[in-house]
Amino acid sequence: MEENNVTKEEIFEYTYSAKRQEEIDTIKKKYLPPEEDKMEQLRKLDASVTMRATVWSIIVGIIGALVFGAGMSASLVGDKSMFVPGIILGIVGLIIMGSAVPVYYSIVKKMREKIAPQILALAEELSK
């Protein structure tokens, strides 16, 4: 019978920890340049269409609310000479607020037409 005389220098030890490797990968990703895959580009392009439209419709809605508020204040707080101009200003504010939704849809339509070739090309690449 042959004996195994193994010294400490000849022993190979290997320890693997999934948690440790995951932490190393997380830290490593912080220092690598960001990689943007095609799916992420597609998501960002799609989101940019509605984001721009949302921002502009909110701006129009806020302006309309401010004009409406000014008209309401003029008709309620001011003297009787400001009542009719206040009502007119309030109606103008309501019209501006009401135009926020059509502004949203018109911007979405224009942006979709503008970005459609890029989105369709990316979608075609991804579906292969």
Overview of the molecule:
The chain starts with 17 loop residues before the first helix and ends with a helix. The mean pLDDT is 86. The chain is built from four helices and no strands. With 128 residues, it is mainly alpha-helical. It has helices at 18-31, 38-77, 83-98, 100-126.
Topology order in helix (H) and strand (E) letters: HHHH
Number of helices: 4
Determine the strand fraction and express it as a percent band.
under 5%
Query: How would you state the average pLDDT, rounded?
Result: 86
Key words describing this protein structure:
128 residues; mainly alpha; 4 helices
Outline the secondary-structure elements.
Layout: H1 18-31, H2 38-77, H3 83-98, H4 100-126
Helix pairs in contact: 2-3, 2-4
Give a summary of the structure in a few sentences.
The chain has 128 residues and is an all-alpha fold.
